[in-house]
Prior knowledge:
Elements: H1 6-13, E1 16-20, H2 26-36, E2 39-43, H3 47-57, E3 60-61, H4 65-69, E4 74-77, H5 82-89, E5 104-107, H6 113-125, E6 129-132, E7 135-136, H7 138-144, E8 147-152, H8 155-165, E9 169-176, H9 180-208, H10 213-220, H11 228-239, H12 248-265, H13 270-284, H14 295-303
Parallel strand pairs: 1-2, 1-4, 2-3, 4-5, 5-6, 8-9
Antiparallel strand pairs: 7-8
Amino acid sequence: MSTDTPQDEARKQNLTVGFIGLGAMGFPMAGHLQTAGYATTVFNRSPDKASRWQETYGGKTALTPAASARDADVVFVCVGNDDDVREVTLGNQGVLETLKPGSLLIDHTTASADLAQELQSACMEKDIGFLDAPVSGGQAGAELGQLTIMVGGDSTSFDSAKAVMAVYGKSVRLMGPCGSGQLTKMANQICIAGVLQGLSEALHFSDRAGLDTTNVVEAIRQGAAQSWQMDNRSQTMIQGEFGFGFAVDWMRKDLGLVLDAADKAGASLPLTALVDQFYSDVQNLGGGRWDTSSLIERLRKLSR
C-alpha cells in the first residue's frame, strides 16, 4: 500500500493548476495547492485579494479566468452561485475559452445539479473532463486542509483528480454521475439546518427554564444529543456571538437550491422549508451575515 502524502503525489504528477475565486474558502484551498507543489495561477474579481494571495503563498496571478486556465491541466472554481460560475466558465474570458483538450474543470461552488449538467455538456464539446465537487467544513476546514468533498462525475476524471483534492480534503468521495456531488451537498445542508434549529430550541428552553445552560450542554453532549454543531457552536450561541462562520445569506441560497431540487424529485421536506423561513426572519433582524447558528436569536426575539 502506498504511503505517499498528497505532497508526494503533487510532485509526481507535476500538474499545472488554475484556481478561480479567493473567498474565505478558496484563498486557503488555493494556498494548499501551491504549498503542496502544484504550480498554481489564481484569478479573483478583486485583484487586491489575488495580490495578497501571491504575497502569502507565491504562485502566479491572472487578470482573467481565461488567462488562469491557459496552461492549466486542472482548473478549480470556488465562487458564489450559479450565475458566478457561468460567468467565470462560459462567459467572455471564461476558462472554457482557453482550457486545452484533455484537461479537467472542477467546480467546488455549492450550486445546482442542473448547472453541473450544463457544464459537463459544455466541457464534453471541448474534450475536457468535468467534476462537480462541493465542499463542507467551513473556513476552518479549508484552512486546516480538512474539508469533506462530495464529487459527481465519471470515475476516470475522479481518479485523476482525487490526489489533487486530497491536499485540502480529509474525505474525497465519488457520489455518482455528474450532479451527484451537488445533490449530496444538499443532503448535508438539510441535516445542518435541522440540527441547528433543534439545538437553538434546546438552548433557549434551558435558559427560559432557569437552568445553567452551559452545564446542560456538558451533560447532554455525552449522549445521543451530541453533534458537531453542539460541540463547536453551543457556547457562542449561549453568548450571542455570531460574527463568524457560514453566513445566513449563504445558507438561504443553499436551501433555495435544496427546495428546488426537492420539488423536481418529488421529495417532501417540511422541516427544511420551515427552517428556511426562520432564516428569513433572521435576515429581517439584520443577521444576513451572521453565522447559521444565529437561529437562536429569532427565538430570543420572539420571547421578548
